[in-house]
Amino acid sequence: MCGIFAYLNFLVEKDRKFIVDTLVQGLQRQEYRGYDSAGIAIDGDADGEVFIFKQVGKVGALKKRIDEEKLDFTKTFISHGGMAHTRWATHGQPSERNSHPQRSDPKNEFTVVHNGIITNYKELRLVLEKKGYVFESDTDTECIAKLAKYLYDSQKGNKSLT
Fold first, then answer.
1. Catalytic residue chosen out of the listed positions 1, 2, 23, 69
2. 101: which DSSP letter?
3. Helix or strand holding residue 110 (H, E)
């Protein structure tokens, strides 16, 4: 069974190490649920930048991978949002590319974690592929990120989505 954990802070300064540790500890508390891979998305160094880390296996392997990255763990954030996920494969084999978070595009403009099954994901995927979206995984979840990007891009300049 999948697990989701999020961390948000608003106008409370925290460093990246605290944020990553909070997300990883949140996942570790859900390890009893069973899963095949884990991942997190955190704010990057520049405005609008998002870092995604994914790993097949246990949360400890994800933590090791993050610790090996050349990140500035002392960087502080006044406001921050991060998400974490453990995945039990339903669509696509257990692999890094199928792990969550899934993204909308190479800039990670929209990132998504999700539990459950999107029953019409094949139809959504086909429509989005016809509109030029390139899929990187075999998951149904990626459709959510791509659909959010499509809706956002198609509504630029329009103040109402209705």
1. 2
2. P
3. none
